[in-house]
Specification:
By secondary structure, this protein is an all-alpha fold. The chain has two domains: about 15-65 and about 185-240, no CATH class; about 70-175, no CATH class. About 40% of the residues lie in helices and about 0% in strands. The chain is built from nine helices and no strands. The chain has helices at about 15-25, 30-40, 50-60, 75-85, 90-95, 100-125, 135-140, 185-195, 235-240. The structure holds a DNA duplex. Keywords: DNA-binding, Nucleus, Repeat, Transcription, Transcription regulation. Pfam families: Myb_DNA-binding. Its main location: nucleus.
Length: about 250
Amino acid sequence: MVQQEVRKGPWTEQEDFKLVSFVGLFGDRRWDFIAKVSGLKVAGDSLNRTGKSCRLRWVNYLHPGLKRGKMTPQEERLVLELHSKWGNRWSRIARKLPGRTDNEIKNYWRTLMRKKAQDDKKRREAASPTPSSVDSSISSNNHAVDPHASKKAGEESFYDTGGHGNGMIIGSTQQQDQGHGQGFPMDDIWKDIDFSEEGCNFSCPQVPSPSWEYSSDPLWVMDEESLFCPMSEPYFSCYAQQGSVSLTG
DNA sequence: AAGTCAGACAACCGCAGCGTG
DNA sequence: ACACGCTGCGGTTGTCTGACT
């Protein structure tokens, strides 16, 4: 059989829909399996994505517990705090922020650092108009992950500053919670699913579902200290609302 | 109104770790 | 003990969108 081309790039609504369906059937662990099975035109047509791609899409976008929207000041503070503790351990940090993904936090941090780097640069230029060397602090590869190492004063990569070592206060004025305009397309997807499959429960397909038990969801299952309770948050309520999906068509 | 820029978000890639045969 | 396959993580890049000039 000729291997179909693996699709890349942005996901379409249909793909999302299919992925959600497959995850409902097989759980959110067996990505390679899902990718393979879905490539075999099981559900009408195929989803020619790699397991990796499927996982990423699910984790970062389709997962029902995701918050989306701007970080709250509390979350921002927590990110700084944890980053200063753990460095670029995004997934670990994300576990402390229910509803946030490592990707989201990573992006947030990156934006923050870029902004900071720009500010620094401006300030330095204003202070001493010496050319060159000005942005040495951001250009070179200070990518050490260890927050305790490699942090010299005034020298951090814009990507990894090791947190607030330099008095960076994220008082952030942006408190808007989520929602933030864009009509979160997942709602539509879930709605669609809901509509088309009324009456059947997503969370308990007849298939011996490996890991669809969200009480122990890996995403925000906490490690060691101070556990957040994933059940308390949008996570579960979200499921209560959206969880009715079936795949047995 | 059009063009530019910056921020936010989405997605891919490479690598490391882990489980299994 | 080793090879292999799969999953997860971190880094990076591309795209979209809203704000600003």
